[in-house]
Specification:
- By secondary structure, the protein is α/β, with parallel strands linked by helices.
- The protein has one domain.
- Strand 1, helix 2 and strand 2 form a beta-alpha-beta unit.
- Helix 1 crosses helix 2 and helix 2 crosses helix 3.
- The protein contains four helices and five strands; from the N terminus they run αβαββααββ.
Length: 129
């Protein structure tokens, strides 16, 4: 069971219109992190869709030069304020990863279903995007 922190409650107080975002875990990355990220984004007022890993992701033996785990997909019309709230939610969820090695993995925020990355978010970034 995921608990909601005070920081998450503060994000919800900022009021985000029920904007739909997607937590894309189709590559099969860390389930606990995905669960925490989904809860944090929901607490911030977003409607969150979760993309589960495909069966092929569990048996992928190909070598990947750029390893991308979890990503977030946001609508094209998302404003800068909402994008900053998404980034803050990602940083908060990253701060609660189990190991320091996992905490340093950046999460891409994509514009819709495109390959355009609006921001790479990690725990070391400043509060802005």
């Amino acid at each position: 069971m995921t608990t909601v922190t005070r920081t998450e409650q503060n994000w919800a107080a900022r009021h985000v219109d029920r904007t739909r975002v997607i937590v894309d875990n189709s590559k099969g990355a860390e389930a606990q992190f995905v669960s925490n990220l989904r809860a944090t984004l929901s607490a911030a007022g977003f409607e969150v869709e979760l993309r589960e890993p495909s069966p092929q992701a569990m048996y992928d033996t190909a070598v990947h030069f750029v390893v991308e785990g979890v990503s977030v997909r946001v609508p094209e019309e998302l404003g800068r304020h909402e994008l900053e709230i998404v980034a803050a939610a990602v940083r908060d969820a990253e701060a609660h990863r189990r190991t320091e090695r996992q905490r340093v993995r950046a999460v891409a925020i994509y514009q819709g279903e495109t390959s355009r990355v609006l921001a790479w978010v990690d725990v070391f970034a400043a509060d802005g995007v």
